[in-house]
Amino acid sequence: MARIAYFGPEGTFTEQAARSLAAAGDELIPFETVQLALAAVRKGETDAACVPVENSVEGPVPATLDTLAEAEPLVAVAEALLPVHFSILARPGTTEINTVASHPHALAQVRLWIEAHLPGARPIAASSTAAAAVAVQAGEFDAAVCAPVAAEHYPLEVRATEVADVRDARTRFLLVSKPRQLPEPTGADRTSIVAAAANRTGALAELLTELASRGINLTRLDARPSKTNFGEYRFFIDFEGHIAEPRIGDAVAALRRRCRNVRFLGSHPRADGVRATVEPSAGNADFVDAAEWLAAVRRGEQA
Ligand SMILES: O=C(O)C(=O)C[C@]1(C(=O)O)C=C[C@@H](O)C=C1
To answer: Domain Prephenate dehydratase spans what residues (predicted)?
Structure first.
């Protein structure tokens, strides 16, 4: 039985993601922020943490990226992908809605809906969608933009469902633990790293070329400030494949050579099951064959 921290409180999308990733009997423990959920794993209070990492409309979740890049290393061991549409919750009897609270990512995904259906209502940022429901229950704001499951946790009235400016929006969540034995490669995996490229002409292009020249397909590239030197960035790069594969290991070792700093953030099966595209002459067998040939040459056994 594992203890799993998640970005709470109860009723967030992240809780739903954590439930989909947990095994029977695992204990789920809510934390107010992404940083606190990840700190619980670092301190050994929990075995893992579930946090959001990217949304198909609003992009990356900065709190997750920055916290994974700093302090003791953590690795993603699994991921979940959830469809994202919202319910609007209010206290029973509320007639006028002047304030609408939610997580900034959620507010950004319903901006047009609020303009059309609650004109003049002021959007208020809350630490999560469910924290907004708690604040509405306490009478601080008039309505909350929440995950549909929040209606089961809080005594609020559902004023609208299926709210979303963009249909079929999705958020990807990670299950993160301290570095440990990696999940087995499946052929449909994702590897994540964060790299601090040297601050000189072409450094990012060189880094990406190491991946491109090995036929490795990127699934995400985000830049976040290093925080210490203005104008210096960390690059978060996700790509198809598993670090246990020769072609991926070769590329990650090359990045390690090229960059001031590379942190491995995990290799795990993709939630969407999409298999890696492998370019001609860039398959694992090609890398193994080339390494064996080189070893034979070095032994003086060239045919
Ligand atoms: O507040 C929540 O319910 C969350 O799980 C966070 C979060 C996010 O960080 O993007 C997750 C999914 C939605 O896109 C909106 C908010």
So the answer is: 3-178
Q: What integer pLDDT is reported at residue 303 of this predicted model? A: 65
Number of H helices, E strands in the chain: 10, 15
Dihedral sign for Cα atoms in the order 64, 68, 72, 77: positive
Which amino acid residue places its CA nearest to atom 9 of ligand 1? Answer: 52
CA of 223 to the centre of ligand 1 (A): 20
**Residue 173 alpha carbon, nearest atom of ligand 1:** 11
Domain segments of the chain as ranges: 1-83+170-180, 86-163, 181-303
**Minimal-distance CA residue to ligand 1 atom 10:** 105
Identify the pLDDT of residue 197. 84
**Below-70 pLDDT ranges, the chain:** 303
Reported pTM: 0.94
Query: Model confidence over 228-269: pLDDT tens digits?
Result: 888 889 999 999 999 999 999 999 999 999 887 999 999 999
CA 82 to chain centre: 12
Which helix (H) or strand (E) segment is 5 a member of?
strand 3-7
Please give the distance, rounded to the nearest whole angstrom, from the Cα atom of residue 174 to the centre of ligand 1. 12
Nearest ligand 1 atom to alpha carbon 11: 3
Residue 94: predicted pLDDT: 95
What does the pLDDT look like over 61-73, one tens digit per residue? 999 999 999 999 9
Q: What is the pLDDT, as a whole number, of residue 259? A: 87
Which listed CATH number (3.40.50.720, 3.40.190.10, 1.10.10.10, 3.40.630.30) goes with 86-163?
3.40.190.10
| Ligand 1 atom nearest residue 129's Cα | 1
Choice from 33, 51, 66, 171 to test ligand 1 binding pocket (greatest atom count within 8 A of CB)? 171
Q: Is 127 in the pocket of ligand 1 (CB under 6 A)?
A: no
For 1-83+170-180, CATH gives 3.40.190.10
Which among 71, 67, 78 has a CA at the least distance from the CA of 176? 78
Superfamily of domain 181-303: ACT domain (3.30.70.260)
